[in-house]
Amino acid sequence: MKKKAITVLSGGLDSTVASAKFREDYQIHALTFNYGQKSAEMEIKSAKAVCKELGAEHTVIELPWLAELGNSALTSEESIPEPEDSELDDIESALKTAKSVWVPGRNVVFTAIANSFAEAENASIIIVGWDLEEAVTFPDNSKEFLEAFNTVLEVGSFDVIKIEAPLIGMNKNEIVEYGDSIGAPMELSYSCYKGLNYHCGVCESCMRRKRAFKNTGVEDKTVYSEDS
C-alpha cells in the first residue's frame, strides 16, 4: 500500500514537476487554492488535468479573503508587470516585479492548510514546488523558509510530516530538464499570471517558462500569444 502525500498544486510548471516526482511511491491528494487570482480558472483547469495524468485526488480550496489583503497585481485591478528579457536576471528589476505580485502570507497559508490535510489523512509528506530561481525574489520559496517550516511542523504536530521540495536547488532550466527526464506532464501545466486561455508570453512567469524550454532544447508545447 502506498504512503500518502499532500501536494500544493497550482497547476504551474514547478508544482507539476515536483508532484510528478512522487507519483510512483505515494498516493497523492492535490490541493489547488482559489484566492481570487486572475488565473484561478485556468490554474484549476490545469491542476485537474495534471491530477488525472498523475492519478491523484484533487480538491479546490476557496480563500476569497486572501484577495482582499494587500494590493497584489494577481488579485486586484493593478496591471500585471511585463518585464523586458534583460530584466529577468537583474535583481533590482526582478524584485520590483516580485513585490507587485506578492500576495501576503500566501505560501504560509497554503502550507499550513496542507499540513491540516496531512494530519487528517495520515500523510507523511507535503509536496511543494519551491525552487532556487523563484527564491531569489520570493522569500517564501527559499531553502531557509523550507527548513524553518519543517521545524514548525516538527514542533507543532503530533505526526511526523515533512515538506518535500525536490526543486529547491534548481533554476527553471534545470526544472524543465528534470521534468522531461521523469516524464512530468509539463504540457498540461499553466504558468501565466493573466489567466488567459493561452499563455500571454510577456508576464514574468511566462517569460521564465519560455526561456527555460528554449535554453534546454526541450520541446515546448505551450501555446503563447502571437504577440509575445
In CATH terms, the superfamily is: HUPs
Cα radius of gyration in angstroms: 17 Å
> Which range best describes the helical content: under 10%, 10-25%, 25-40%, 40-55%, 55-70% or over 70%?
40-55%
Q: Treating each run of at least 4 consecutive H or I residues as one helix, how many helices?
A: 8
Query: Mind telling me the CATH class?
Result: Alpha Beta
Q: How are helices and strands ordered from N to C?
A: EHEHEHHEHHEHH
CATH topology: Rossmann fold
The secondary-structure class comes to alpha/beta
- Beta-strand residue percentage: 5-15%
* Total domains: 1
Could you name the ranges where pLDDT drops below 50 across 5 or more consecutive residues? Answer: none
What is the tally of beta strands? 5
Please tell me about this protein's structure.
The protein has about 230 residues and is α/β, with parallel strands linked by helices. It has a single domain (about 5-215), classed as 3-Layer(aba) Sandwich (Rossmann fold), CATH 3.40.50.620. The protein contains eight helices and five strands. Strands 3-2-1-4-5 form a five-stranded parallel sheet, sandwiched between helices. It starts with a strand and ends in a 12-residue tail after the last helix. The model has no long low-confidence stretch (mean pLDDT about 95).
Q: Topology, please?
A:
Layout: E1 3-8, H1 13-21, E2 26-34, H2 40-54, E3 57-62, H3 91-101, H4 106-121, E4 125-127, H5 132-135, H6 143-156, E5 162-164, H7 172-181, H8 204-216
Parallel strand pairs: 1-2, 1-4, 2-3, 4-5
Helix pairs in contact: 1-7, 7-8
